Amino acid sequence: MNETALKPGFLSRSVGPLHINLDRQLYGEGHVQSFQLSEANQSLSAFNQKLFEGGVVNPTENRPASHWALRSTAHTEQTGQSAQLMINGRDELVLVRQVQNHMEAFVEEVRSGRYTTPDGVPYENLLHLGIGGSDLGPRLLNDVFAKLELAEAPALNIQFAANVDFHEMKAALAALNPKTTLVVIASKSFSTRETLHNAQHIFKWLDAAGPQYRAKALVAATCKPSKAVEFGVDPQRVFEFSESVGGRYSLWGPVSIGIRMVHGNAAFNELLKGAALIDQHVRESEASQCIPTLLAMSDLYNLEHGVASLMLSPYDSRLSLLSPYLQQLWMESLGKGVDKNGKVLNKPACPILWGDVGTNGQHAFFQMLHQSRIASSVELIVVVHPNHDEVQSHQVLLSHALAQSEAFSVGRLNAETELNNPEINFRSCPGKRPVQMVFLDSLTPYSLGALLCMWEHRTAALAALQNINPFDQWGVELGKGIAEQLEQSVPPGHAPAENPVTAHLIEHFLYQAGTRE
Ligand SMILES: O=P(O)(O)OC[C@H]1O[C@H](O)[C@H](O)[C@@H](O)[C@@H]1O
């Protein structure tokens, strides 16, 4: 007996290194057919056309979304088609190509040791400063690339500092030497408090080693080049990207220049090629064949049926930073309360995305997924060819992923009977959790590019299906504004905060810190 309404293999689709199976969803074939004919699907096709034409898809900021253009050189190489993307009278594709050439040349200079410190020796270290979209992508890429045994060995020791919590910076600096460290300041806006505060600290750290070190060490990735220059970065080492590239969609461009420096241009360009393959797949496939569309269709169906959680578990420890990266992409894009017409939504526009690598999660939170009343879909990623020869370990790993997929969907066959019997109802696993299976041929920069790009399109598709804007993040602004005011109230002896509870909390903090009676 088949546990769901779909025949095995009905929703299996492949593109390049990526394969998905959605047979264990809660809908039947009829849903897929009616979805194809639905108005929502037509709006999605119109959205994708507008996205790739450079139309305004981010209405609250009156901008196109041109992150896909950062992969355009890989697309041109693959298809031989070159195009134009005119935004505000400037061809964005020309900018992308120029900056990419400039980055590649600089990266070669650094990696070959021709770009030297003021003491005439090659740089050995790199500190990446940035937060949110200017941190999570490069951090994920570095973590995966470092575990891939790429043809080119890492050329520099890399450290990251995102948080204004100084513990992170302290640990990063302990592993660095100011005389041999390049500092990448990645900030789309070049005005993020945490990043600029950390950069100011680093200026002091570099200057303490000698006044000559700062100038050559600084590199910036931003869409506000003049601000970076004003801040003290040599214009030769300011790498620009367009304002219409959202921060959480920006890892394909200059924000990842540190990853190019550490792991080489070749690996990075493979990542772009894998992503460009998915762009092409989205441009050319009809809904019933398009992987991101089918996933978004399932996500929407689940939301409409009260499933507002999505647990993502890659059965590969090299992907342990995937969930934190995707949390920003997914929840900053889709965590919205109104649609593009300002209409208040009557349900969440995205499930909460969370998870950890398998099998570890099985021994931690899978219990809740199997038996609690919290409805969650489950997405399991399996890498078919591992990067080791321990066949048995890999088979055990695969068995666990497949077992969980079956258990979440089928449950325990006599679950209903068990529930009617108080003596044994603790055993009941009702099943019927929607399961998405994702297979990657192997983990490479190319397949990673395809996987991440697939998620970008899935995110945008789920937004388009609900007529919401996935490219703004107005909710983030509120706390930033309040924090700016409170910086005046936190130091002892300063004006109290306006809000009485906040004022009380500050009083308590100062008392516990021993700076107030
Ligand atoms: O790159 P930046 O301009 O420094 O912005 C860094 C981050 O800041 C904000 O909090 C936004 O919510 C994020 O989307 C962004 O990635």
TrEMBL record:
Pathway: Carbohydrate degradation; glycolysis; D-glyceraldehyde 3-phosphate and glycerone phosphate from D-glucose: step 2/4; Carbohydrate biosynthesis; gluconeogenesis. Belongs to the GPI family. GO terms for biological process: gluconeogenesis; glucose 6-phosphate metabolic process; glycolytic process. It comes from the Bacteria. The active site is at E332 (proton donor), H363, K480. Keywords: Cytoplasm, Gluconeogenesis, Glycolysis, Isomerase. One of its GO terms (molecular function) is glucose-6-phosphate isomerase activity. InterPro entries: G6P_Isomerase (IPR001672), G6P_Isomerase_C (IPR023096), Phosphoglucose_isomerase_CS (IPR018189), SIS_dom_sf (IPR046348), SIS_PGI_1 (IPR035476), SIS_PGI_2 (IPR035482). Its EC number is 5.3.1.9. This is Glucose-6-phosphate isomerase. CDD domains: SIS_PGI_1, SIS_PGI_2. Its main location: cytoplasm. It is found in: Cytoplasm. It catalyses: alpha-D-glucose 6-phosphate = beta-D-fructose 6-phosphate. HAMAP family: G6P_isomerase. Catalyzes the reversible isomerization of glucose-6-phosphate to fructose-6-phosphate. One of its GO terms (cellular component) is cytosol. The gene is pgi. The keyword Isomerase applies.
